[in-house]
């Protein structure tokens, strides 16, 4: 069992260094293991800011300098690669288009799929590197026959395998996650960084969406898509209020509805459906959010595709809990049934299937079936 593509020789490793503590320690561990490591910082913004705002945002000039200083301390070569155009097209524009279509995307999955383990990996392989190393908390297991599996990190509290569920066999064959094999807390990672003399040891983590530095997703979308007033209605179609753009809502949302009229039972109401065609947001009680089944498209497998129906656990959000499901491929789409109803499931989200700690694969939710009438 190993976390590198091969054990027989030192590898040429390209370490993606964001300027944060996790990627710096990952690069240091790879170098300490005897690999020939080169650090690279991805310039993903066409207009990087000089300084980040607290723990928000990334890919700033400050982050690039922090990554360079870490590489100097580790003693590895360092470069900055400009992937801003590719990132804008594959991640930012996709994010905006998905919200405009009434769906809820996860840009971190798209970035891993399209940037770190596609654009970056392709360039790395073309330059003769064997693997791309990142600071993700996940584990790669190599079986006796040489095939590789993606598993949850040893420290389940830090596990990031959900956002890596888009990796296919080829990408997994060249992935290295040095932080995933050890049960360490973030405090221990910071202490290790300090012992190694890395100045990022106390740098705050980046939160929320990296290209929305102020954390105001609704404001970002409004600037991109413009305001478009529409109706907020109940399940019977009664008009309860208005909004300034259906793209500013997501299924399961409770706060920010700005409905003046209380529900007849006095209980909170939640977003149940978003119709971009009519620019209408439908709200209702929590019980109407119960989902019993879903259909997901564009499946990606971390290994061979399942040959028939199977029982798995599924994760629906980056920090969500697992739930038991049965799933099978039907005409190229993933049909999933939940053992117990779940809530807050939105089209556009990713569903990641697990067999124990092993990541089986992922797909993008296209439609849901509710315990009550209607499908999202």
Walk me through the structure.
By secondary structure, the protein is α/β, with parallel strands linked by helices. The protein has 3 domains: 12-202, Rossmann fold (3-Layer(aba) Sandwich); 227-288, SH3 type barrels; 290-370, Elongation Factor Tu (Ef-tu), domain 3, CATH 2.40.30. It has 7 helices and 17 strands. It has helices at residues 21-32, 61-74, 84-100, 107-126, 169-172, 186-195, 217-225, and strands at residues 12-16, 36-43, 78-82, 131-133, 138-142, 148-152, 175-176, 230-233, 239-243, 270-275, 280-284, 291-301, 310-315, 323-330, 333-342, 350-355, 358-370. The strands form 4 sheets. It has a 6-stranded antiparallel beta barrel with strand order 12-15-14-13-16-17. A hairpin with a 4-residue loop joins strand 10 (270-275) and strand 11. The protein is globular and about 65 Å long. The two termini are 42 Å apart.
